[in-house]
Design brief:
With about 220 residues, this protein is α+β, with helices and mostly antiparallel strands. The protein has a single domain, classed as Nuclear Transport Factor 2, Chain: A, CATH 3.10.450.50. About 30% of the residues lie in helices and about 25% in strands. The strands form 2 sheets. It has a 6-stranded mixed sheet with strand order 2-1-6-5-4-3, sandwiched between helices. A two-stranded antiparallel sheet has the order 7-8. Strand 4 (about 100-105) and strand 5 (about 115-120) form a beta hairpin. Helix 1 (about 10-20) crosses helix 6 (about 165-180). The radius of gyration is 18 Å and the shape is globular. The chain starts with 8 loop residues before the first helix and ends in a 14-residue tail after the last strand.
């Protein structure tokens, strides 16, 4: 049984995207062969493939590393071969290290999912697919509630004066993950701090988001 918390998929992925030492070392080399347009095209092909259950729709490199739920898999075995009625998706692009993150929410079709997928793109082609797939067996899972709250979030681009540095984002993300093992770790909590974990929305609602109802 898997025990992934849906609410931290994005955080984990952002830290991995931004914080890999190897990725930082290769940043200059990768940047020369990756553009935002390339990443967007790769992401669009992934979402189309997942919706159709047809991996042939992806812009794949000649050699691809396939990962699902932190284990190696094959082209033929991944969930991307199953057609899913996608209710909502959003993607984040990082052309500096040529990676993207896509969140996919499925609430219909008899098997709800929330999926987080990181793509690594080389010269316009997908060289790695790394998915975390969560469903009914997972902690606090509720795709309907997750969809409702996720759609209310505003992930638009911040103006430059409101952005944190890349290193600070990595440090903050790591501290949040570390506190699960060491309660003495200092986490730079926001005020208010909204957390979406599985289908549970906790702490104060931000503007435009209704307060969560108490479960009976």
């Amino acid at each position: 049984m898997k025990h992934f918390g849906i609410g931290i998929i994005l955080l984990v992925t952002v830290v991995l995207m931004a914080g890999s030492a190897a990725a930082q070392d290769q940043k200059a080399e990768v940047k020369a062969c990756c553009t935002r347009a390339m990443l967007q095209k790769a992401v669009d092909s992934y979402v189309a493939a997942q919706a159709a259950g047809d991996i042939a729709k992806m812009d794949l490199a000649l050699h691809v590393n396939y990962m699902e739920n932190m284990e190696k898999t094959t082209k033929e075995k991944g969930l991307w071969n199953t057609a899913l009625p996608i209710a909502f998706s959003r993607s984040y692009l990082d052309p500096d290290i040529c990676k993207s993150f896509t969140e996919i929410i499925v609430t219909e079709g008899g098997h709800p999912y929330v999926i987080g997928t990181r793509l690594t793109v080389e010269y316009g082609k997908i060289a790695e697919i790394d998915s975390l797939v969560t469903d009914q067996d997972d902690w606090l899972f509720n795709a309907e509630k997750y969809l409702n709250y996720s759609k209310l979030e505003d992930w638009s681009t911040l103006p430059p004066e409101k952005r944190s540095s890349r290193s600070y984002l990595i440090q903050s993300g790591n501290s949040y993950l570390d506190i699960f093992l060491d309660k003495e770790v200092v986490v730079p909590w926001g005020k208010p701090c909204a957390r979406l974990e599985g289908g549970a929305y906790t702490l104060e609602p931000f503007p435009g988001m209704p307060a969560p109802k108490e479960e009976p």
